[in-house]
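Can't paste images in this forum, so I'm doing it all in text. The chain is below; anyone willing to post the predicted structure tokens underneath?
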Amino acid sequence: MVAALAVYLAAIALAAGSSLVLGRNPLRCAPWLEMTGAASVLSSLGLGIWLGAGTIAMTRTVVRRTTWARALHLALRPAVHGVPGDMLVGLAIASALAEELLFRGLLVPWLGIIVPSIAFGVLHQVPGRARWTWMAWATVMGLLFAVVFRATGNLAGPIVAHGAINAANLRYLRDNDPSPPRRPLGGLLRRG
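Text version of the structure:
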């Protein structure tokens, strides 16, 4: 976890530094909607909070109801087993900042919303049978973050949404086992 945190901190410096060298503010872009200042920030934050809360709620439903999400949950769970809460929060914040500054702050103004969203999805490649569904899910999330950024011209909402999703879902991943409870002898000795 410490190595992952170091990689994210390096990515933050690289993405923000690259944007500044290119003469761009990594937290802002020309908005699709005509808004500036406080309207831009508040709109971005409002959309980010809505997107984050909806995604967190949907994650729990999808894990309970779909085989692919349970398989993904079980495959990723060992990576966070026993990790203290403060480390999970630090990792959630660092990953959200790094990925938003890189994929949205640096790449979206340069490449548009599609290519960085696909790259974001590909970055979230995992082994196992849930690989392609997870990559598609991450691509859609990247696209939604990019739309909020481009619509409002402000990266605050995507950062807040991404950080909240990561923090809540890492804790959920660590603390919840979606495996069905085992019954002795396959349920043969159940009491009726």
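The mean pLDDT is 92. The CA atoms of residues 87 and 151 lie 33 Å apart.
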